[in-house]
Specification:
mainly alpha
Amino acid sequence: MAEMSFWDHLEVLRRVLFRVIGIWMVVAVGYFIAMPYLFDRVILAPCHDDFILYDLLRYIGQSLNLTDSFFTEQFNVKIININLAAPFFIQISTSFWMSIITTMPYLFFEVWNFIDPALYAKERRGVKKALGVGTVMFYVGMLLGYFIVFPLTLRFLTTYQLSAEVDNILSLNSYMDNFMMLNLCMGLAFELPLVTWLLSLMGLVNRSFLRKYRRYAIVIVVVVAAIITPTSDPFTLCVVSIPLYLLYEMSILMIKDKKKAEEKEEGEEAEK
């Protein structure tokens, strides 16, 4: 295969960008058309009492004879719109973000095809693993945010009353800001094991280092959770910080101490 010049690489990159943008636009238009249906069945689903998490909580309460309101409470939220143009712009922005999230695997596929010829075999395995693990972990974080973190946060905050004289009325803009921010932040937060693994490959961290500074990590996790959560209440903080700390522990399990890794490689080479 002939070596490509700088302009050849630029032409390949141009074609990649056109394909990615084309696919993204098609998906975005599709989401825009289907948005009224998706809004009722997916985005606003946590506002209704038949949401899967609420059914699960009631089932657990009935099975264990739990009478606490957390397991028995009936929950429905009515959302109002106080901005004339909000529904239209929210339909556009939601279609935009959902299309980006959906086409992310295709984007990574195009990135992989573009950089693959320039990589060595060992580098190729590492990058392929990073792209695959990163994609899966992001979607796992999004699912956790949608099915657990956001519904619990929504139910707690909308039923919390500062005073009997104050009625909780949720606006469309407020709901969507919290919905998008919390779910996207949970997806990004689940990239922590991948980032830690990449840092370990560069020799910047190892398992002993993460164990040594575990106490400081707890404080950092709480601070990060306080930053990414849309509210400052302790309940939301705990709901977000606990999964983040579990991810930190997962990061410790994923990487190895450099010295032990080198000894293992030397042993494998000796056996060959």
